[in-house]
Amino acid sequence: MATLTEAQRAEAARILSEALHWTEYADPAEAAVEVARTLEDPTRSGLAAVEDGRVLGWIGVIETYSHAWELHPLAVDPPRQRQGIGRTLIEALEAKVRAAGVITLYLGTDDENDGTNLYGRELFPGVLEAAERLEATNGHAFTFYRRCGYEVVGLVPHANGYGRPDIFMAKRIG
Length: 174
Ligand SMILES: CC(C)(COP(=O)(O)OP(=O)(O)OC[C@H]1O[C@@H](n2cnc3c(N)ncnc32)[C@H](O)[C@@H]1OP(=O)(O)O)[C@@H](O)C(=O)NCCC(=O)NCCS
Description:
With about 170 residues, this protein is of the alpha+beta class. It folds into two domains: about 1-100, Aminopeptidase (3-Layer(aba) Sandwich); about 105-174, 3-Layer(aba) Sandwich (Aminopeptidase). Helix content is about 30%, strand content about 25%. It has helices spanning about 5-20, 30-40, 85-100, 125-130, 140-145, and strands spanning about 45-50, 55-60, 70-75, 105-110, 150-155, 165-170. It has a six-stranded mixed sheet with strand order 1-2-3-4-6-5, sandwiched between helices. Strand 3 (about 70-75), helix 3 (about 85-100) and strand 4 (about 105-110) form a beta-alpha-beta unit. The longest helix is centred in the middle third of the chain and has 15 residues, at about 85-100. It is globular. It binds coenzyme A. Coenzyme A binds near residues 141 and 143.
């Protein structure tokens, strides 16, 4: 990300805004702030997929624990989704953080859009039983992460309002 031009950084912000249009990043100013944070915060970094000078998608990481870092955010330009770019970005990030001595890469993938069988439900008590029965119902990114080798390690019920949980996933990469 650090080598991107100003125009490419703006493109990265647009992609975040459009790919995650149901989140706070729908606001272009919020998306631009996220790009800037990834570039400027010393505990963050990122990688971009670039083709002929055009940004196709990008991924960030936050150095949260000594040996477990958080993948955040990940966005692929909507017309270029399902072409292997997301997987390529994750694999490149895994190689980068593995080289830094990280053992576990983890992430939160919210269900704010009726994308899984957890949406709209009370998950207490028995949160971990609900996690074991988790299924995507509507193209939720959880399936993508599972195909990339991530497993569900927990849920935060009602993280984004009643029935809108965050789904935590992780993978041993080192
Ligand atoms: C989720 C996202 C990053 C995936 O990137 P992508 O480039 O579209 O995914 P890829 O083409 O690399 O897909 C890799 C695999 O996951 C599968 N996959 C990708 N998105 C999927 C989805 N929404 N539902 C089910 N499977 C999916 C692909 O079919 C492919 O399967 P394979 O193992 O058979 O090859 C991208 O679609 C995106 O930016 N979505 C909107 C933003 C978002 O949800 N970000 C994550 C927030 S936590």
